[in-house]
Amino acid sequence: MTTEATGVRLDCDGPVATVTLCRPDVLNAQTPAMWRALSEFSRALPGDVRVVILRGEGRAFSAGLDLSVAGASGPDSFADLAALPESECADRIAVYQSAFTWLHRPDIISIAAVQGHAIGAGFQLALACDLRVLATDAKLSMAEATIGLVPDLAGTKRLVELVGYARALEICATGRRMDAAEADRIGLATVVVPNAELDDTVRDLAAGLLANNRNAVVEIKALLTGAAGHSHAEQQRAEREAQTRRLRDLTGRGE
């Protein structure tokens, strides 16, 4: 499908891929067509891509779900989903989730460049990324509860991992908005910069990630991703095994 039909574009420049939400007239509100395209991007990435940047055109990252689509009566609307058998409804949502979860891939590091609103699905898209660079005007909210829904695009676990259970509950259950300064204070932001510096900061961060050995960075990401579920002994074993692989690779003894 075309960019005009999906509202999202993929551009690759060597090891950096940029995914751009391009519906600025509606603050990059998201649709199921956009989610299907995002899922396809994961399969379309060239093998040399190491960093994926997520950004939104215009003055917002993403204002969330496009309620003019979801609230209508056509395919993928709330009414359409509700009419499905429960298992089929859950399967449909799993397809939507895949638009977000591919950003967790172990072989890439994903960066969200967030300006303006990142609401609901927009917030969850930013959470799906490994790193979040926020402009000072960023406004974040997990707003699903305000329309009687729950966050279902793979954002709840990531939020708890970043800010803890109690803070995550308060953010999700109230649906309130937080500014960039608060997001930075509670650990949601990797860095906060003036709007005019957002693109340059993301570019510099990507360059820093690319400066080191790809396989070492992949191993580091795997170690850190798995750390929360490991005991100290298990994590230490994982470190030993990863280092052994790196030493063998660096000395030409790897597979």
Radius of gyration: 19 Å
**Distance N to C terminus:** 40 Å
Strand share of the residues?
A: 15-25%
Mean pLDDT reading: 95
Q: What global shape is seen?
A: globular
Largest sheet entry: 6 strands, mixed
Q: What is the H-and-E element order?
A: HEEHEHHHEEHEEHHEHEHHH
Identify the quaternary structure here.
single chain
Structural class: alpha/beta
Q: Report helical residue fraction.
A: 40-55%
- How many beta-strand segments? 9
Q: Give the count of helical stretches.
A: 12
Strand arrangement, major sheet: 1-2-3-4-6-9
Q: Unreliable segments (pLDDT under 50, ≥5 consecutive)?
A: none
Provide structural commentary.
This protein has about 260 residues and is an alpha/beta fold. It is about 50% helix and about 15% strand. The chain contains twelve helices and nine strands. The protein has helices spanning about 5, 30-45, 65-70, 80-85, 85-100, 120-130, 155-165, 165-175, 180-185, 200-210, 215-225, 230-250; strands at about 10-15, 15-20, 50-55, 110-115, 115-120, 130-135, 140, 180, 190-195. Strands 1-2-3-4-6-9 form a six-stranded mixed beta sheet, with helices on both faces. Strands 5-7-8 form a three-stranded mixed beta sheet. The mean pLDDT is about 95.
